[in-house]
Amino acid sequence: MLKMQQLTNIQAIETAVNQLGDLVISKNKKNKVVLMTMEEYRKKILDDEIDRKLLQSKDDYEKGKIRDAEDVFKEWEAKYGI
Q1: What are the domain boundaries of the chain?
Q2: Exposure of 16 by Cβ count < 10 A (0-12 exposed, 13-18 middle, 19+ buried)?
């Protein structure tokens, strides 16, 4: 299976599409244009979202925007009977 390889002409791109199916054109962190399969693209999007959430969590923690889980669960039990 081809993976985000360097393709330099239309024929190579056509061959990749024929072998891999739908492809996505994107840019990598080095600002280079890359082709990737839909599966690779979905994984990249998921990984990027996880990275964003982790950075947001770290920021929230550093700003003190956290609560003790036991307090939250007690609140849910009182409010929702969970």
Answers
A1: 10-80
A2: middle
For residues 81 and 51, what is the distance between their CA atoms, to the nearest angstrom?
A: 34
Q: Which amino acid is present at 9?
A: N
What single DSSP character describes residue 2? -
Confidence band of 6 (pLDDT split at 50, 70, 90): low
**44-to-56, 61, 72 alpha-carbon distances in Å:** 18, 26, 33
Phi, psi of 8 (to 5 degrees): -115, -5
Q: What is the pLDDT of residues 14-66, one digit of tens each?
A: 888 888 888 888 888 888 888 889 999 999 999 999 999 999 999 999 999 99
Both structure tokens of 70: 């036991």
CA distance 12 to 55: 38
